[in-house]
Amino acid sequence: MNKVCAVVGIGPGNGLALVRRFTREGYQVAMLSRDVDRLEVLEGEYPGAYAYRYDATDGERAGEVFARIRERLGPISVLLYNAGAGVFKSAEEASLQEFEDTWRVNCYGLAATTQAVLDQLREHDQASLVVIGASAALRGRAGTAPFASAKAAQRSLAQSLARQLGPENIHVAYVVIDGVVDLPRTRRAMPDKSDDFFLDADAIADSVWFLTRQQRSAWTFELDLRPFGESW
Q1: Are 134 and 107 contacting, i.e. CB atoms less than 8 angstroms apart?
Q2: What's the pLDDT tens digit per position in 141-191?
Q3: For residue 9, what are the β-bridge partners?
Q4: Looking at the predicted structure, is the pLDDT value of residue 1 above 70?
Q5: Which SUPFAM superfamilies has this protein been placed in (predicted)?
Q6: In which domain, by residue range, is 201 found?
Q7: What is the pLDDT, as a whole number, of residue 96?
Q8: Using CA atoms, how far apart are residues 49 and 62, in angstroms rounded to an integer?
Q9: Does a structural domain hold residue 111?
Q10: How many domains does the chain have?
């Protein structure tokens, strides 16, 4: 059976690094994002990667998209949920729509995607579902109310999935990103920061790869990643 990985949320940082890591390991990788034009360019750069237009907040279309992936590539054995969105305001400043929009990407999208892919994961002797989270899931700071509450809900959902699916040999893990990923835009926004301040996206992808290779006798549910200089 072909090795098939789906990455939901392909940005220039973690998403692209996950595509690089899993194609290098011989996986066929379905890249899912709203910006399919950019993904089609990436198809030419990464043999074994395929572009699919996907909006994680559109749960009605999730089944259709993942059925097309299965038809073309085979059943997915690794699902990486990297879609995320954040509004960084206090509970007083944020609108209710901003709360809902943030929740729909981080939590609703994870639920819709999981429901659409679960039957494919179950076709394998062992499968993995890894969710890329944030330290906001563990601590709600004053100016992060929409983002922190959505990430906390996402983490709780992932934990519930882990308890449900573990007996079926589907490993669910939640990765807490505690810090700033090294990107051109984050470098421009923080020109005074040293290299050691940032997280390297390829190093994050290495850790995700490790999670998908663990033996079930010693699975990790939550893995927190941070540069050594991060205050925690």
Answers
A1: no
A2: 888 899 999 999 999 999 999 999 999 999 999 999 887 777 778 888 888
A3: none
A4: no
A5: NAD(P)-binding Rossmann-fold domains (SSF51735)
A6: 4-225
A7: 95
A8: 19
A9: yes
A10: 1
